[in-house]
Amino acid sequence: MIDETRTQFSDEAIRHFLLGNLNSAEQSLIEHSLFSDGGLEERVRLAELELSDDFAADRLTSAERDLFRQRFLITAGRETSLEVSKALRKDFAPARVTTQPSLRQQISSLFDIRQHAWKYAFATLSLMLLLLAAALLVRKEQSRLVNDGPRPQHAVPKPSATSTPVNSHHSGNAPAPVHTETSPALPPHEGLTSSVVLAGGTVLESAPVISTSGDVITVQLQLSEPLAIAYDINVMTTSGESVFSANALPRGGSEILGFDLPTNVLKPGDFQVVLNRNDGESKQAAGIYYFRVR
Amino acid sequence: MSAVMHLKELRREDFERLLIWLDADRERAGELYERIRWRLVTILASRGCTQAEELADETIDRVARRVADIERTYVGDKAIYFLGVMNNVHHEYLRRPTTPKLLPTPNDDNDQREQVHLCLDTCLERLAPYSRQLIERYYAADKKAKIDLRKLVARELGIKPATLRLRALRIREKLQTCIQGCLNRVSEARPLGRATQASK
User: Fold this and answer.
1) Tens digit of pLDDT at every position of chain B (200 positions)
2) More confident residue, A202 or A276
3) Is the pTM above the cut of 0.80?
4) Domain spans of chain A?
5) Per the CB < 8 Å rule, is B77 touching A35?
6) CB contact under 8 A, A74 and B149
7) Which residue of A91, A150, A238, B77 has the fewest C-beta atoms within 10 A of its own C-beta?
8) What is the C-alpha R_g of chain B?
9) A195-293: CATH topology
10) Which comes out higher in pLDDT, residue A14 or A135?
11) What ipTM did this prediction achieve?
12) Which of B47, B116, B133 faces A250 most closely, judged by CB atoms?
């Protein structure tokens, strides 16, 4: 674990040292080096932070977690460090930055059966098969009725002489008005999707309607010139209540800015995404995008 | 006990002498003092000592009291001297009769957590845009996806994943220092408010 001739300590050795899991010879060697080697001191400092990050992200083994609690988490500074690790994870994990996948990744993800698109495709296919089967059954039943035998002929009414007209109970009022109920307008097309592309300049009335099925929805904003390196987004209700925000989202190489929006912040209603260019020192408005949640 | 509180308990005269012995430049001496204390705490903790901070402070106390005697004759790395004294302090600690000691309970203070979040936001705002972008992307993914994403980020930046890790952790260290300072300022301002509430 430790190369004693050059006193080079592996990252693993440093980690074991922090968890109090070295033998006495290795322990003694690293203790003396910590006081004489500034480079090692920095590595141990950084390894301390990384250990907190790994604990917060549940990346330690069960034995390491026990050692972490018993031998590492014993100073106020380290407790604070763990809180920071948790906060960083909480702040940044939901707003995962959408990166441009490679061609290989795109192809492999295309055939990934776990994707929402595939689920909806299967659901649609099942529905279509069901409708087709129902239509075939109806047709078959109709043809069966036709083939079962001659239908009774309608008897033509025979003309007969009428007597002198007399008052009858029929009212002489004007005929009843024709029932002219108009069908309600069809709702806009609502695609069940876990991804939505929003274009700037679209008014609320023609904004896409999205479903909140799933944990997150990937929102892709079509950016307009001039393009910035990074953007701040703020997702708000149309009445101005902020439900989600993320800062300094990098644009990447395209004219699309993507981010994952947790669906638990969305309730049925109208929403707007307020986009600002973030060039470090200054922030400029870059557009408003609307969408609706059913 | 924080280092600042500990300083108040050291005799002013001894502490001044300790700092001058460490370095004639007061600022550098203060930095060296903090680094030595951190090393002592880290070593004691890795030895399984649950009172690492207390023993580190006791070590510094002893050294500070001896400086008057050794400053003219001591030759060599002064930091190493602390290691020797710390070994004595730790041996004495191990010989003390053991008293049952409760393991530290996980910090479950919601106020503290909320304050860490507020300080994190403030400290993130102070980072340069590049640093902020880097650390956000570094912490964006989790678990298995993290490795792939970090490789991707490293490729985009034209650096090796190991270099990305170092850069991100150095920014993380800056954040940690900034947040610690922010929390200290809040806690210095807070006791008065809590006392007022408690007296109602």
Assistant:
1) 455 555 555 678 888 899 999 998 999 999 999 999 999 999 999 998 988 999 999 999 999 999 988 888 888 888 889 999 999 999 999 988 766 555 555 555 677 788 888 999 999 999 998 888 888 888 876 555 666 777 787 888 788 888 888 898 999 999 999 999 998 888 777 654 443 333 33
2) A276
3) no
4) 2-94+114-148, 195-293
5) yes
6) no
7) A150
8) 21
9) Immunoglobulin-like (2.60.40)
10) A14
11) 0.81
12) B133
Q: Which residue of B has its CA nearest to A22?
A: B46
Q: Does A148 score more than 60 pLDDT?
A: no
Does A133 lie at the interface with B, CB-CB under 8 angstroms? no
pLDDT tens-digit map of B121-140: 999 999 998 888 888 888 87
Q: Of the candidates A75, A83, A84, which has its C-beta nearest B53's C-beta? A: A75
Residue of A34, A73, A74 with shortest CB distance to B43: A34
Distance CA B175, CA B127 (A): 8
By percentage, how much of chain A surpasses pLDDT 70?
69
- A-chain CB neighbours of B180 within 8 Å are 77, 80
How close is the nearest chain B Cα to the Cα of A189, in Å?
A: 34
CA distance B196 to chain A (A): 25
Cβ-based neighbour number of residue B48 at 10 Å: 13
Q: Does A270 touch chain B (CB under 8 A)?
A: no
What percent of chain A has pLDDT above 90?
A: 14
Q: A28, A33, A34: best mutation site toward chain B, by most B Cβ within 10 Å? A: A34
> Beta strand A209-210 with A283-293: parallel, antiparallel or unpaired?
parallel
Identify all chain A residues contacting B140, using CB atoms and an 8 Å cutoff: 92-93, 95-97
